[in-house]
Design brief:
By secondary structure, the protein is of the alpha/beta class. It is 37% helix and 15% strand. The protein folds into two domains: 3-257, Type I PLP-dependent aspartate aminotransferase-like (Major domain) (Aspartate Aminotransferase, domain 2, 3-Layer(aba) Sandwich); 261-357, Aspartate Aminotransferase, domain 1, CATH 3.90.1150.10. The protein has helices spanning 9-13, 20-23, 56-66, 78-90, 107-115, 134-143, 165-175, 230-237, 247-256, 259-284, 307-316, 341-357, and strands at 73-76, 97-100, 118-121, 147-153, 180-184, 206-211, 224-227, 289-293, 299-304, 322-323, 333-337. It binds pyridoxal-5'-phosphate. Pyridoxal-5'-phosphate is lined by residues 78-80, 105, 153, 157, 184, 186, 211, 213, 219, 224.
């Protein structure tokens, strides 16, 4: 039994839409897609034409970046789209579930709710720095075969902790032929933890999500990558929009992945790392901060008294940080993204003023 048997039967049964560009990939006199024969503005990238659904050059660059064959990749509009596609392909409304470990990234829940899937939450341990409750995750999956997707995040947003590789392997062994394990590595480049990408050869039910939004400084591009065995990639291709990647996005993504930019990226990661150290040292000197979760990503989580007031005070000083008023687990916490040197100085001015006013 392969992972196809985990997909919704309707998805397996349907005949996927075949776009004009898929049938005739852009050679010759193109009179097959109801496009304009010319553009109205002088822009590179043939805006009058539909883009390649999965541009070969971009796939090849990303395959090089993540050290996998191209057939293991699906390029999406950010990881958000990857999460949505997975949920649509594997979860039947009212019957299947996702498993998540809150506090975590909010879009897993939204994707499940949109699809009408149940949400099984195995909460992280609040009194222990929101450590993942590994045993509870394994026990829940042993007792419950309804969870088609298991969402894990490493480093996790907003706690910043990483998944232990032995635990991941144990989980993958337990869930074979039962669930798809989605490891969201949106912040992987900020951490020393090795990626789990190489495990996809061994486990066809593992999916790794990567994105250009964070360490590649390209949140505005909306470019994410699903990495998995071709059988799973082909299932997602059945439901992805015919032309998910706008031509200008593809052009910019290719520029982003050129060698000189890679050098810049490495420098930027180092600078963020040193800014994070500076931020952490400064936060440790402030007594209104009751707990600091440094994590391994480009943000830190802090616990404070009166988080709403701190948030408003910072906003009045022109500095926007993230609060979680709607999440009872995170009600006392604030998340600070590691910014530039001047961003952090402005934040610390506000924090010091807040400290003095108390
Ligand atoms: C853990 C995690 N995964 C995925 C995303 C979304 O990434 P993208 O911008 O690629 O859609 C985010 C965004 O904050 C995130 O924190």
């Amino acid at each position: 039994m392969g992972i196809e048997s985990l997909a919704r039967p309707e998805i397996l049964a349907m005949k996927p839409y075949s776009s004009a560009r898929k049938e005739a990939p852009g050679e010759g006199i193109l009179l097959n897609a109801n496009e304009s024969p010319w553009t109205l503005i002088d822009e590179p990238g043939a805006l009058n034409r539909y883009p390649d659904p999965q541009p070969a050059v971009l796939l090849s660059r990303l395959a090089g970046l993540y050290s996998v064959p191209e057939e293991n990749l699906l390029v999406t509009r950010g990881s958000d789209e990857g999460i949505d596609l997975l949920t649509r392909v594997f979860c039947r409304a009212g019957r299947d579930a996702i498993l998540q470990c809150p506090p975590t990234f909010g879009m897993y829940k939204i994707a499940a709710q949109t699809q009408g899937a149940e949400i099984i939450s195995v909460d992280r341990i609040a009194g222990d720095g929101f450590r993942l409750d590994r045993q509870a995750v394994l026990d829940t999956l042993r007792d419950n075969r309804q969870a088609k997707l298991v969402f894990l995040t490493s480093p996790n947003n907003p706690t910043g902790d990483v998944i232990d590789p032995d635990f991941l392997r144990e989980l993958l062994q337990l869930t074979r032929e039962q669930s798809i394990v989605v490891l969201d590595e949106a912040y992987a480049e900020f951490s020393d933890q090795p990626t789990a990408i190489s495990l996809i050869d061994e486990f066809e039910h593992l999916v790794v999500l990567r994105t250009l939004s964070k360490a590649w400084a390209s949140a505005g591009l909306r470019c994410g990558v699903v990495i998995a065995q071709p059988v799973l990639i082909n299932l997602l291709r059945r439901v992805i929009a015919p032309y998910p990647l706008p031509s200008p996005v593809v052009e910019l993504a290719l520029r982003m992945l050129e060698k000189p930019v890679l050098k810049k990226q490495k420098k930027s990661l180092k600078r963020l790392q040193s800014n994070k150290q500076f931020l952490l040292e400064s936060l440790r000197g402030l007594s209104f901060i009751r707990e600091i979760l440094p994590g391994e990503a480009n943000f830190v989580l802090i616990r404070v008294n009166n988080p709403d007031e701190v948030l408003t005070f910072c906003a009045d000083h022109g500095v926007i940080i993230r609060g979680f008023p709607a999440d009872p687990m995170l009600a006392d916490y604030l998340r600070i993204s590691v910014g530039s040197e001047s961003d952090l100085s402005a934040l610390l001015v506000a924090f010091e003023e807040w400290e003095r006013s108390k």
